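Cast an eye over this sequence plus tokens and explain the fold to me:
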Amino acid sequence: MTDVSAHDPEEFSVGQWPDWSFWKGRPGGSRARGRGRVAVATAMTLASLTLIARAEDIAHGTGSPLLTSLAIGLVACYGIGCMLAPWYGPAALRRGRIIIVAVMFLLGAAPAVLLASPSCLTDLTFALSVGFMLLPLRHALLLGLVTVLGQIVWMRIAQGEVAWVQVAILVGVTAALGTVFALNFTIGHLRAAREEVRRLAVNEERGRVARDMHDVLGHSLSTMTVKLGLTRRILESSGDVTLAVGQVTELESMARQALSDVRATISGYRTLSLDSELAGARMALHAAGVRADLPAATGSVRAELREVFGYVVRESVTNVLRHSDAEVCTVRVGPGWAEVTDNGSGIGVESAGNGLTGLAERLAAVSGTLEHGPAVGGGFRVFARGPVPTSGPDRDLTPSPEPEPT
């Protein structure tokens, strides 16, 4: 058995099964879902009250008591079905929907057949409305066309003339109820889409904060750990208090800067400077005993890429401090690319962790790409590439795929 929602609900077609999945219990949507069901069921209940008039006509007719009682019972069952079908039908699968519509048509057409009265087929407007609610549009339209033509032909054969008022009622009421269902269907999907957008916005903000917190605290804590180790070694080896105090003063400044960055990250106002990240990388690498080979100027880097390349430098240098036994770390930048290499073992960073995954997401946001892996001759390489301009002086030539670190 195939689920009704197997087709993409965003791709409308006349053969598509109506997707009422927003009635099945999405988080936070119970109140709106309840209003939708009540509106649909109320519309069908009010419309089916006209069946009382049909039952009175049958009761005052000239048919036999047995046929009259049976016809009134069928009209009552049909009225109950009109109230229940819109409530439970949307949650059913395809086979269940077909059965519901078929039962509705049998109950609606049976009195007309028992009493040989084609005018009673006008009551099938409620069954047709349920068909428009539960079946694909082309099937529902075909069903409506067959019903209308059947009533016209039966009237012509049985009465010699067509009661066009009855035909107009059949078409008009069906169209009105179908419009009610269509509006409720559209409103329900709009509410569901709004909830989905709201949920995605929350997840996106959580991801942004998580990436920024990782970048801020990861780099700052790694640098502070290195400097604390250096301070301990100074005190243990030479006892040079002045030099140790200088290291502690730098640590205090870094801690304050990290706290400021965390606050700015939470507020969403934090920006990153490529030049400041290169200066911080120089200090962190020097404290760790790693020779820093950094660019003398960054003026050639395109303005829209300076911030994301700052993140590339920060995360790559943090990985060198955490995972590598490198002696040299090299940073190179161009108008649309940035590269960080080291000559360490590269152990622990060949698989993308949270930091490299976050970098890939940041670059993807500006239509860029990230490459990382072993460098030629040993070590590890991180290469970030921004979008290549189609024309203009900023169109740049990127370096060879695997340059030798210097």
